[in-house]
Design brief:
This protein has 17 helices and five strands. The protein has 423 residues and is mainly α.
């Protein structure tokens, strides 16, 4: 590493509380990628190199004190030559803000590999979404702030996530535990990549309309489940399968999402995708039972991306499907569709399990009624399990077949997905 003692910050923004040299075991410092530093954007955090010292300690020494005195070409050369650089824990927040402002630069950088780009994007997106889910939506300004922060992040990332090659990054996230924030990121990412690869589905009247739609779709994907903040935690985080009433309560999240974002200036495309992303092509979905052409195109795309990621994510009660297995279910005809719809109707109308339990050999009335109740509840659990198993026999009735076929073709373009058997 070149021995030049400098700090990559503007002198007017110098943080005098930090020292130019530390002796530390490493716990007070965080490693960052030198290629993530934009030479055209002066930073407000110190950058250190890490040197061996003694007694399990390291010497952390500043690099670059007056960046304005260095020609840009020299600065770029130095950043490329450094393998590892560090920031002090006191300035992690500054660095996170720097990443948000320079996300587009990082995602476009040809020398930063796809894994690091994906990690940076997912980390920042998770941070933004966690802040969104923790916002006080009773305050109008907070609602608008959620939309603004998400829009800002997506605008920086949209060129990257809409590139079909970026799906090599999302492939690394497939099969992980289901987590609402990560799920939402992947749905937005998949929507942007799909729309960019299928532009012929839309009419663009002027330059910039495509990018606008990509941003609106990605924002919809990231916020499509924001209404779940209104769902009781004991239902949302339940380890096992949901009973019928809990399933109905979960379904209310689409309407909650729309109500939370209604007065934020949200675009029509984004709102439609969020509100209608659980509508089925055959009219069996929710919240309004729309079918076929009644369902907005962007909502249909959100539905496909949402179900694909849900099936390929690990849950408490199920192992993840591979992308091939998930799409085979989604494109398959269900031979038990009539029975499935009967079960779904029971759920939608919250019909009591149509079973009568009679215990004849017990003379204790209270005990007999208790056992009868247990038998009915057991039958209800069996019907819930049966409904989930029947659903996995085929879901093509839920989707626009043309869009679903295009979705398979689109993600198959990525080197990380092999779906030849479905094409």
């Amino acid at each position: 590493m070149e021995v030049i003692i400098l700090v990559l910050i503007a002198e007017s923004r110098l943080n005098l509380e930090l020292q130019t040299e530390y002796f530390n075991d490493g716990t007070a410092f965080h490693e960052i990628d030198p290629l993530s530093i934009n030479p055209d954007h002066l930073t407000n955090f110190f950058i250190y190199e890490k040197l061996p010292y003694e007694n399990d300690l390291y010497k952390f020494r500043c690099l670059l004190v007056n960046s304005s005195a260095i020609p840009k070409e020299k600065l770029v050369e130095m950043l490329r030559s450094w393998e590892n650089i560090y920031i002090h824990e006191q300035q992690v927040k500054n660095y996170r803000e720097y990443l948000k402002d320079n996300l587009a630069y990082i995602l476009k950088h040809k020398d930063i590999d796809i894994v690091k780009k994906t990690d940076t994007l997912v980390s920042l997106s998770t941070e933004v979404l966690k802040e969104s889910f923790e916002s006080n939506f009773a305050v109008a300004k907070a609602c608008k702030k959620v939309l603004e922060n998400t829009h800002r992040l997506v605008s920086e990332a949209v060129e990257f996530i809409s590139d079909i090659n970026s799906l090599n990054g999302i492939a690394n996230l497939i099969g992980h535990d289901y987590e609402t924030h990560i799920h939402s990121i992947k749905v937005g990412w998949l929507m942007a990549a799909f729309i960019n690869s299928n532009q012929d589905l839309f009419r663009f009247e002027k330059e910039g309309d495509l990018k606008l739609l990509l941003v609106q779709a990605a924002v919809a994907g990231m916020l499509h489940d924001i209404g779940k903040i209104k769902i009781p935690p004991n239902i949302l985080n339940k380890k096992g399968k949901l009973d019928n009433l809990e399933y109905i309560i979960i379904q209310s999240h689409t309407a909650y999402s729309a109500s939370l974002l209604f007065n934020t200036g949200i675009s029509k495309n984004t709102m439609q995708a969020i509100l209608y992303h659980h509508e089925n092509e055959d009219g069996s979905g929710y919240p309004t039972g729309l079918e076929k052409k009644q369902i907005p195109l962007v909502a249909k795309i959100c539905h496909i991306a949402d179900v694909f990621d849900a099936l390929t994510s690990k849950r408490h009660y199920k192992e993840p499907k591979t992308p091939f297995e998930a799409l085979k279910i989604m494109t398959g005809d269900n031979p038990y569709l009539d029975v499935l719809k009967k079960f779904e109707k029971e759920v939608k109308e919250n019909i009591t399990t149509p079973v009568t339990a009679i215990v004849r050999d017990d003379y204790d009335i209270k005990l007999r009624r208790l056992r009868e109740k247990e038998m009915v509840e057991e039958e209800s659990r069996k019907r819930i399990e049966a409904r989930l198993k029947l659903r996995d026999q085929g879901m093509v009735h839920c989707f626009d077949k043309n869009l679903l076929k295009r979705f398979v073709y689109t993600i198959n373009k990525s080197d990380s997905f092999e779906l030849g058997g479905l094409l």
